[in-house]
């Protein structure tokens, strides 16, 4: 399995996505930090503390990496069907389900680790920049960041699972645009905030919603290969 | 002589239409089997069924004494193939495409990729991306990929499509060399009847999903002057009968 993942990684030059990953992290932090910094300079702070700052940052992270994963899904799975290279892949002495599992594992893993990596980098940037360019009023504490680790891990797993849902839409017409469009819709739908003056909420905050969607994503991943041995490859 | 590919009572039905009907074929070890038939006759479907890309509705396929079941895959190690137009990974170079193929098959012999590229005359363009390749070059590269792991069986669906006369001659000589020197069994389909005539040991003629005949080339040479004449008579006779 690991060998197959390495081959898929090499074949699709997944390394080239690291540059895009860094740009995404910079864009996420840059946009939230800019909002925070300008609001502080206008004496109307948008974020009172670290938790509020990270609340918006996490929304951006979730949306961005659901979409990012759909691009990977398109490249690794949908394009193989669209370009008919899947025929070639299935003439190799390999179990078909292992091949697809390897591809999905890359997408799941890339999404999971990207979210963790992005969160760590943004935490480091907050610790580094907040004393010089205040982003929120209350000082950022390392303890708060450490305490958020379990939630970050759990969220990363759930988003990685959810990121497989666009596979269903993409595979119906073997279409990369359908995969990415559905990812955009899913990303915005589950992260869209409804707020009043005192509180705001999104679908992602109802724990049952991300859990169910994560399971749906994993089920779609499973369904994409469980019957593969019995199907014709067009 | 031992059969390398044995097909019996093979049928395939797509959406209620029988595209392959009760086909029996016997491909012997070390022979070149020319597979002839008009467009849509079922050649590619049968080749795909041998490769397990398409599942038979009924019937049996045996490759190297192993029955091909829906989940069979290990036997594919012994087969090199080109089905329809050869497809490649556009983002990587020609060399990397062949190297990746070797890695997927689990074949690791130093210099194998260079050797395969040299055989098909592409050694000087190994570092170029596929997007820069013409159809003929892609066809040659497809052949390089099919032969690089030195498989026992080659399944080549229209391998000389898009090749210039020199390329066709090169491939013809290569296939004969593979058969004679390495004992490779080759199942080849082509629209160019004269090419099949010059290299095949056995001919299978298929029309509307049915195998009309399986005959030794020597017999055709004895009884008819040309394969093309024999082939056309057979197909037209079958069409009139239908």
UniProtKB/TrEMBL annotation, chain A:
The keyword Transmembrane helix applies. It comes from the Bacteria. Keywords: Membrane, Transmembrane, Transmembrane helix. The keyword Transmembrane applies. The chain crosses the membrane at residues 20-39, 59-78, 104-129, 149-169, 176-194, 206-225. This is ABC transporter permease. The lineage of its organism: Bacteria, Bacillati, Bacillota, Bacilli, Bacillales.
UniProtKB/TrEMBL annotation, chain B:
It holds the Pfam family ABC_tran. SMART domains: AAA. Residues 5-233 form the ABC transporter domain. Belongs to the ABC transporter superfamily. Coiled coil: none annotated. Keywords: ATP-binding, Nucleotide-binding, Transport. This is ATP-binding cassette domain-containing protein. InterPro entries: AAA+_ATPase, ABC_transporter-like_ATP-bd, ABC_transporter-like_CS, P-loop_NTPase. GO terms for molecular function: ATP binding; ATP hydrolysis activity. Signal peptide: none annotated.
């Amino acid at each position: 399995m690991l060998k197959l993942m390495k081959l898929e990684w090499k074949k699709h030059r997944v390394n080239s996505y690291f540059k895009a990953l860094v740009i995404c992290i910079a864009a996420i932090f840059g946009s939230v930090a800019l909002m925070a910094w300008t609001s502080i300079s206008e004496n109307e702070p948008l974020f009172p503390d670290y938790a509020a700052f990270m609340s918006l940052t996490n929304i951006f992270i979730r949306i961005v990496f659901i979409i990012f994963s759909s691009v990977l899904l398109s490249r690794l799975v949908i394009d193989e069907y669209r370009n008919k290279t899947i025929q070639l892949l299935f003439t190799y002495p390999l179990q078909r389900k292992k091949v697809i599992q390897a591809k999905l594992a890359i997408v799941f893993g890339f999404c999971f680790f990207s979210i963790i990596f992005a969160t760590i980098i943004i935490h480091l940037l907050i610790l580094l920049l907040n004393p010089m360019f205040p982003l929120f009023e209350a000082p950022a504490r390392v303890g708060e960041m450490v305490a958020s680790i379990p939630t970050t891990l759990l969220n990363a797993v759930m988003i990685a699972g959810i990121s497989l849902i666009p596979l269903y839409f993409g595979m119906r017409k073997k279409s990369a645009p359908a995969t990415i469009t559905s990812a955009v819709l899913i990303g915005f739908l589950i992260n869209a905030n409804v707020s009043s003056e005192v509180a705001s909420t999104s679908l992602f905050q109802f724990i049952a919603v991300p859990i169910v969607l994560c399971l749906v994503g994993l089920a779609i991943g499973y369904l994409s290969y469980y019957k593969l041995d019995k199907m014709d490859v067009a | 002589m031992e059969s390398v590919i044995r097909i019996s009572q093979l049928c395939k039905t797509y959406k209620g239409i029988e595209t392959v009907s009760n086909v029996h074929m016997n491909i012997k070890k070390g022979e070149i089997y020319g597979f002839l038939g008009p467009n849509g006759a079922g050649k590619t479907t049968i080749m795909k069924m041998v490769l397990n890309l398409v599942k038979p509705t009924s019937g049996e396929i045996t490759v190297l004494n192993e029955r091909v079941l829906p989940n069979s895959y290990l036997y594919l190690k012994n087969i090199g193939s080109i089905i329809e137009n050869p497809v490649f990974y556009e983002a990587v170079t020609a060399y990397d495409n062949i190297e990746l193929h070797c890695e997927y098959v689990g074949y690791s012999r130093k210099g194998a990729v260079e050797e395969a590229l040299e055989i098909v005359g592409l050694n000087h363009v190994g570092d170029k991306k596929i997007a820069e390749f013409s159809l003929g070059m892609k066809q040659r590269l497809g052949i390089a990929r099919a032969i690089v792991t030195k498989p026992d069986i080659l399944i080549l669906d229209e391998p000389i499509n898009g090749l210039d006369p020199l390329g066709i001659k090169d491939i013809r000589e290569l296939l004969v060399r593979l058969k004679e020197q390495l004992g490779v069994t080759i199942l080849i389909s082509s629209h160019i009847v004269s090419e099949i005539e010059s290299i095949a040991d056995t001919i299978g003629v298929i029309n509307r999903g049915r195998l009309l005949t399986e005959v030794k080339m020597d017999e055709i040479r004895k009884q008819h002057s040309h394969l093309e004449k024999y082939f056309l008579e057979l197909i037209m006779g079958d069409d009139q009968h239908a």
